[in-house]
Amino acid sequence: MKRLILCLMLLLLSTQSLAAVKQEKAPSSVEERRIRSAIEEQYNQIQKDGDHLKVKQMQLKTLQLEVDKKLVQMNNLRQELLKLLNRKQDEEGKRVVELGKIYEKMNSMKAADLIKGLNPRLAIELLGTMNKKNAGKILDNLDRKTATKLSTGFTQLPVDRVPSY
C-alpha cells in the first residue's frame, strides 16, 4: 500500500515535472537533455509500475470474488448436509421407537437375549422407548453385569440426545 502511494506521488510529480519540461524551451545543454531524458525514463517506469499494480489489484479482486463464491457454495453444502443428517437421525429415532415396540411385544427372555447382543447405546435407547414395566422385565432377564451397564447408561443418557449409530 505504501509502495502504491509512493508510486502515485512520484507519478504526479513526474507528470507535473514533465509538463513543465515540455513547456520550457528546447534544452540548451547536454546536461539538461540528460536530466530530461532521465525524468522521462522515470515517468515511463512509474507508469509501467502503476499499470502493473492495477493489473495485480484486478487479479486480487477476481480471486477474492472466486473465494467468496466458494465460501457461499461450501456453506450451502454444509447446510444441505446438516439437513440430511438431521433427517437421517430423525429416521433412526423413529426406527428405534418402532424396534422398541417390537421388543416390547416379545417374550421378555427372548428380548433380553437379543438386547444382550446389541450395541449398548442402541440397547439403552430401546429400553428407554419401552413401557417401563416391560423394560424392567427385560432387564430382570439379563445377567447382572449387562443389566447394571444398561441401567447406568440409561441414567447418563442426555435428555435431548439424538441417536447416532
Detailed description of the structure:
This protein has about 160 residues and is an all-alpha fold. It has 2 domains: about 1-20 and about 35-85; about 105-160, no CATH class. About 85% of the residues lie in helices and about 0% in strands. It has 6 helices and no strands. The protein has helices spanning about 1-25, 30-105, 110-115, 120-130, 130-140, 145-155. α1 (about 1-25) packs antiparallel against α2, α3 (about 110-115) crosses α5 and α4 (about 120-130) crosses α6 (about 145-155).
In short, what is this structure?
The chain is mostly helical and 165 residues long.
Relevant terms:
165 residues; mainly alpha; 2 domains; 6 helices; rod-shaped
Task: Map the helices and strands.
Blueprint: H1 2-23, H2 30-105, H3 108-116, H4 120-129, H5 132-140, H6 144-156
Mean pLDDT: 83
Encode the helix/strand succession as letters: HHHHHH
Distance between the termini: 54 Å
Tally of separate helices: 6
Radius of gyration: 40 Å
Instruction: Characterize the overall form.
Output: rod-shaped
Please identify the structural class as seen in this structure: mainly alpha
What is the count of distinct domains?
2
Q: What characterizes the major β-sheet?
A: none
